[in-house]
Design brief:
- Two copies of one chain form a homodimer.
- The first copy, chain A, has seven helices and three strands.
- With 132 residues, the first copy, chain A, is mainly alpha-helical.
- Chain A has two domains: 1-25, no CATH class; 35-131, Winged helix-like DNA-binding domain superfamily/Winged helix DNA-binding domain (Arc Repressor Mutant, subunit A).
- Chain A has a three-stranded antiparallel β-sheet with strand order 1-3-2.
- Chain A is globular, with a radius of gyration of 19 Å.
- In chain A, 32% of the residues are buried.
- The mean pLDDT of chain A is 91.
- Chains A and B meet through helix 1, helix 2, helix 3, helix 6 and helix 7 of A and helix 1, helix 2, helix 3, helix 6 and helix 7 of B.
- Chain A binds a DNA duplex (20 and 20 nucleotides) through residues 51-53, 63-66, 68-69, 84, 87-92.
DNA sequence: CTGTATCCCCAGAGATACTG
DNA sequence: CAGTATCTCTGGGGATACAG
């Protein structure tokens, strides 16, 4: 029996998970990754490795709790690595894994889209408010 | 003075909005669109116009409240149209606008990514649980 | 069929204080 | 600097009932 090729494996994986199903693991994963903090953290780290403080500064308005929580979840899912340098004071660096970079590529389009189409959305809202 | 070309306008828009800023409208928009229901609704409608009941059936587990709420928000932002046919019983069709189709193209990558990389994520979680 | 209107509840998010 | 631990509290989201 020949080994399945890439296209066959891709098709199988497509069948394996379906986010339209409520109980599918991919539904839960979709819920996790569709999050503004995830989007912004990944995007910030796409520039390269960063420390906790740097991330907090770049991602304005994120609380320490949410930042840590987001970083922990992304680490758990293998999307980023957490490297501790036991100096005094402590130094912790976060960096995307290849899997994280892959997701970041998709997510960055979302952030860009929001920034690029903001005017169109605001116009639509004004139109809607007038018709309403 | 010559009219700005497409590339210049694109650059200006990029400067105009920045989701890293807490108070930027695009931050709020990013928060709105990074949502699993938005992702699933857009993806379902990419197949073509659909009725409320069809959407509810395809998107398993969505409550009526969340579905309506999501549809209203997307309509408000000009991402889909809501067409009422005043028959008895009532018939309501939802369809993506060009702007909605554009966003859907980005979002569909996210759903696909979750389904395609579910195995890798699950493996990472097992690895993390063991190391933990 | 396609919704609104209500009630209710708890997870999630901020704020604050403390530690290695 | 980089967190953890707690507390509080709001508002997101489910369930239910009713209406055009």
């Amino acid at each position: 029996m020949p080994a399945p090729n890439a296209s066959q494996r891709r098709r199988e994986r497509k069948i394996a998970y379906d986010a339209f199903m409520a109980t599918c693991p991919s539904r839960q994963l979709l819920d996790t990754i569709t999050d503004k903090w995830v989007c912004l953290v990944l995007n910030a780290l796409s520039r390269g490795s960063m420390r906790h403080g740097e991330l907090a500064r770049i991602i304005a308005g994120v609380s320490q709790k949410m930042l840590t929580q987001t970083l922990r979840a992304l680490e758990r899912d293998g999307l980023l690595t957490r490297v501790v340098t036991p100096t005094v004071p402590l130094r912790v660096d976060y960096a995307l894994t290849p899997l994280g970079m892959d997701l970041e590529r998709q997510m960055s389009h979302l952030k860009q889209w929001a920034e690029m189409n903001m005017d169109a959305i605001l116009a639509a809202r004004r139109r809607h408010a007038r018709t309403q």
